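Appendix B. Raw example, untouched.
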Amino acid sequence: MTSFHLKTYYKNYRLHLLIWSIYVFYDVFILGFISKFREPGVYVIVYIINIFTFYLQAYLLKKILNDKNNSVKIVKILLLDTLIVFTYILSTQLLVIAFEQFKLIDADTLSIFDRSFILSCIYRSLLFVGFSTGYVYILKSFEDQKKVEKLERKNLISQLEKQSLENDLVQSQNNFLRSQINPHFLFNTLNFIYNDTRKKAPLAADAIMNLSEMMRYALKLPEASELVPLREEVEQIEHLINLHKLRTANTINLSLEVNGDLFGLRFPPLILLTLVENIFKHGNVSHSTQPAVIKIDYSLNTLMISTINMVNDVRGKHESHHVGLENVANRLKSFYKDDYVFKHYTDPLNRYVTEICINVINPLAKLNMTR
């Protein structure tokens, strides 16, 4: 167990070092060529303070998030951000003075009491407070997801009743997307990062916007026993597809086909998202001649949902155990009893197929017929 933890820490250390190296290279050379290069001592001061601010914010924010009192938590976060900004400005000024004493920078290079210097420090401190906050929230989401997966294994091993298992798992899956941090503060941070990056890195800004929309939807999801508008579920699929296109430089071969008027039609949440996530996780979505297809058809009170994708022949760490499909089957049975058909199989072309057929009457359509 000790060896496993050491390997994990080593991998995290290498990942952090790689990301910081890329950022420093971009900040020094790319921006240097665009504008101008500064003295080496100036870069040393900037990156020491930036990296220190990032990890100090992350360390203290993790401790604050463990507080059970939400009102106190918000106050503490605001006080922490104010303290980080003040510490950033003060530390930068002290390092400038120290570097001037040791002749590492020219005294005329930076004016620590200049208005533009103070504003630059405030901007940089808020930028890295935002980055660090997003980093902590992502880590917390991963931790919550691991807890959900652990709960799944425990419930499956103990063979609890399927209905109880379905409610526990879906509720846990909804809850792990909800952060203990105030959602308003979180989305303000995401908007800040988006506005800061959309000109320098438009692809990254698009990814942030798609992720933000998915998180907004997840935070407003109802209880596991309620239905949601099917059109909203389709929108989340589109966000997920866009994120994967951005991640893979638009190399995926996948199409989403929606036929029929879905307005007013309601459907259990997270079922469609689970099927699409399985395509990306276990399927081959880059096949040149066999595209992955997601079809949603509503006609004559019959809802047909199907997915088709080539089976990924490369066995990796995402080997399927069909837990997600079992969860889909349990949820469909919970909502529709025996009035549905759910099939999943591999066809002769080595394509994995899932099919859902449900008799559904659109309440809005029924209302129009009675008028």
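End of appendix B.
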